[in-house]
Structures are given as C-alpha cells and as structure tokens.
Amino acid sequence: MQLTSLTDILSLIPDLPRADEAARAAAARRQDSLTKPPGSLGRLEDLALFMAGWRGTARPQIDRAQALVFAGNHGICAQGVNPYPQEVTAQMVANFDRGGAAINQLCRVANADLRVIALDLERPTADFTAGAAMTEGETLDALNCGAAAVDSEADVLVLGEMGIGNSTVAAALAAALFGGDPADWVGPGTGSDTAGIARKITVIEAGLARHRGLDAMATLAAFGGREQAAICGAVLAARAAQIPVILDGFICTAAAAVLYVVDPQLLDHCLVGHVSAEPGHRKLLAALGKSPVLAFDMRLGEGSGAVLALGIVRAALACHNGMATFGEAGVSSA
Ligand SMILES: O=C(O)c1ccc[n+]([C@@H]2O[C@H](COP(=O)([O-])O)[C@@H](O)[C@H]2O)c1
Ligand SMILES: Cc1cc2nc[nH]c2cc1C
Q: Where do transmembrane segments lie in this chain (predicted)?
C-alpha cells in the first residue's frame, strides 16, 4: 500500500476486506459445542469469534504476532507541555533496542516479534500553535512508513508508540475530531502537575483556534505527529491483509481515531487492548464504541497494554481450538 495523497484513503475503502461472516458463524457454532455452558467464557468467546472473522477461518491460530512501536518527536514540546525532556524519546528507543524497556519484557512473555521504528527524531514536527505540525508530504511519508512496516504474514498486529509530548498531541486530535471541552481530553501524560495540565489545555485551545474546519486527514497533519500517522498507515495495511490489530492506550487510540472519522468501519478489525489511566481514553473509547480488553491502570504507552491483551487473545484461542466438544468428551449437554 502506497498513498500518494491524503485523500487516497477514500478510494481504498471500497476494496478493503470485511470480516468473514461465514467463518465467524462457524466459530460461534464451535463455541456452542465446547464443554462449557454456552457463553460461560464471556468475552473470551467474543475474542475468538473476532479473530475467526478477521482471519477468515473457524479455527484461527496465532503463529506469528507482530508488535510495532513508532517513535516521534513533537514541536509542541517548545510550549513546555512535557515534564520529561524531548531527548528521552531517542534514549528510550535505544533502551528498546537494548531490550531494557517494559515492552521488551511483555513482548517476550506474549511471544510477539517487536520492531521499533524511530521516525526522524532529530527533526521534530512543527509547533501546532504556530502552523501545521506536518506538511502533507511528511504526513504521507509517515503513513507509508507505518504501512510498509506491517508483516503481511502476521496473524495479529500489536501497535504502540513513544514520543515525549504526544499526550498533548493525542488530546488535541481527540478534541479536534470529536469536539467537546479540551479539558475533558487532557490528562497528566507522563506526570504533568496541575499547572502543566493547565498549560496543555491552553496550548490545545490555541491549536484548535488556528486549525478549524479541517477533514480528518488534514487534522492529523495539523496536530501531528509522525508516530500517529504511522499508526494510521499500519492499521490500514493490516486491514488490507486481513490482520486484526490490537491498539494500545490513549495516544495510540487517538491516532487510530483519525481513521474512524474518515469512516467508522476502518477500525472494525481493531481491538483496544486496554483502557489507559489517562482520563481522556475512556471518553475516546465511548466515542469509538469500543470496549477495552483490559483495565489495568496502565499509562505507559509503548504498546504495553496492547501486548498484555495479546496474552488474553492467545488464551481465548487456546480454549477455542483446544477444548473438547460435548460429543468428543462424552459429557452430557443440558
Ligand atoms: O498511551 C497512553 O495511554 C499513555 C498515557 C500517558 C503517557 N504515555 C506515554 O508518555 C509519553 C507522552 O507523555 P507526555 O507527558 O510526554 O505528553 C509518550 O511516550 C507515551 O507513550 C502513554
Ligand atoms: C521513561 C519513559 C518511558 C516511556 N515509555 C513510553 N513513554 C515513556 C515516557 C518516559 C518518560
């Protein structure tokens, strides 16, 4: 998938695959034949049916799980919206590469292949209070980079991000896409105090005043950043390859929300792995009509909540594929 303009996305939509309803129905029949009262595995059953629909088979397996973490830097950091200095983005990328971050440990436990992609860290996006964070060309480059990173052989894709300052970008995107009071979308991020949160709100109000009346893709360019655009590209490429996606926290979900505003069905193949402790995430999930797999009070980013949810999806498929039916086990049904 190679986008040459931000409006290309509209022409892709009619050809994107949809869930295979026959495979999903066959998986539902299997669930009802397994040695348990129907429905007793609750949302594990829903996850198995979700995977069946998107993988197009009644007995989906996860042989290959890919985790992609995109990192970017943000011009809005010039406004003092971030408690940690911007160089932490590159320092954490080095930490990911050495295996020292939370995401490395969680990917090992969940058996996911982690790939970290740093997007022009030495060239932060522009300050969105002064102009568009990204040109159309920069937005397209990041979208195409995200799309190209998707392993077409993967059975599931976990997405995450790293970028000092990007909780402000995410809140700005959410406010621009869904409206409401900016204060409802803003939270502490990595640990802003009350004064820091007030600064984030002021900055977002200035950004919203500058960038009015834009469509969803232009909103992405206006507020940034590269990692958000790359997440959009990866979500689209995964869809084209019928690979279900697990989104991470507030920042990752706000990026994908751009696609939802383009067309809500663009996120049909996406689960949200967890609801972050960042307060705007709950409101964002309500706007997208998504229920998180987990609520673990996490607010790290990096894809950490999404890869934890991968373990739950693996558990759902272990039951779905490994359990005996009533007939096979000689267990009497109701
Ligand atoms: O995804 C979340 O829910 C989340 C919530 C709070 C913080 N983060 C991470 O923290 C960074 C952004 O926070 P900040 O304070 O620098 O804007 C960025 O690297 C994110 O991955 C992520
Ligand atoms: C240390 C650190 C690790 C992170 N991982 C994702 N965002 C982060 C922000 C900070 C500050």
A: none
- Ligand 2 binding pocket includes 302 (Cβ within 6 Å): yes
Which positions ≥6 away from 152 have C-beta within 8 Å?
Answer: 241, 243
Quote the pLDDT of residue 189. Answer: 98
Model-wide pTM > 0.95: yes
Among candidate residues 163, 170, 75, 82, the one with its CA nearest the CA of residue 126: 75
The ipTM value here is 0.99
Q: What is the mean pLDDT of residues 212-238?
A: 98
Closest ligand to C-alpha of residue 164 is 1
Q: Look at the domain 64-313 and name its fold.
A: Rossmann fold (3.40.50)
Q: How far is the CA of 204 from the centre of ligand 2 (A)?
A: 22
pLDDT in tens, 96-139: 999 999 999 999 999 999 999 999 999 999 999 999 999 999 99
The reported pLDDT for the residue numbered 1 is: 86
Q: Is 116 in the pocket of ligand 2 (CB under 6 A)?
A: no
Q: Please tell me if the CB atom of residue 300 comes closer than 6 angstroms to any atom of ligand 2.
A: yes
Cite the beta strand spans of 210-296 per DSSP E.
245-247, 270-274, 292-294
156 Cα to the center of ligand 2, angstroms: 25
Q: Is 278 a catalytic residue?
A: no
pLDDT category at 320 given cuts 50, 70, 90 is very high
Closest CA to 54 of 16, 7, 8: 16
Distance CA 95, CA 161 (A): 14
